[in-house]
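Recap from last week: sequence in, structure out.
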Amino acid sequence: MTIDTLDIAASPMPATVPKRSFLQEVIEDTPGSDPRFEMCIQCGTCGGSCPSGPDMEYSPRRIFAMIKADMREEVLKSNTFWYCVSCYYCMARCPQQVHITDLMYTLKRKAVREGYCRKSTASDAPDFSEFFADAVLKYGRSFELGLATRYHLRHHPLGAIKMATGMGLEMMRKGRMDLTPRRIKNVDQLQAILSKAEEIARQEREQGGVA
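Predicted structure tokens:
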């Protein structure tokens, strides 16, 4: 036996990291405490409570089943989580206290980062979310007129005219929509908080964490 062979035999074998199932990945990549995703009993209370349920390609119950079946691409290409309005009604009624709304946010992040959102029937939804986040970062609150105008001009220019002359005028007449944006007090403090949160998230992404 040569020295080279002895060196190879003595050197430790590289540790192999077991591949996570899609369910494990979603659980571990959801911030906060245990989201209890594994506790879903497929009762359907979430889908029956969801105001956006009829517009979703798959009900939350079916999404859980698809995640457990490792149907990664089908899940991340669906429009289900983009239709979630974050009302938390599903979580309030879930008998197993599953963090369903948190799951929707996790799937949104994954769909955007992995490019699946562009293959979805709700492919314009990420832009709407981005425009909303931009307004909050700049003003501390949503600016409905700017948000709707920016979104519709990019995706539905003809719809922008219809909305402006219909619901838009009615909302302004009733004082429900401002013509110009209004900043909250101490918006610089909010911007500092959001900037720090993004820095922490970036560091976690670089370290292979959740964020």
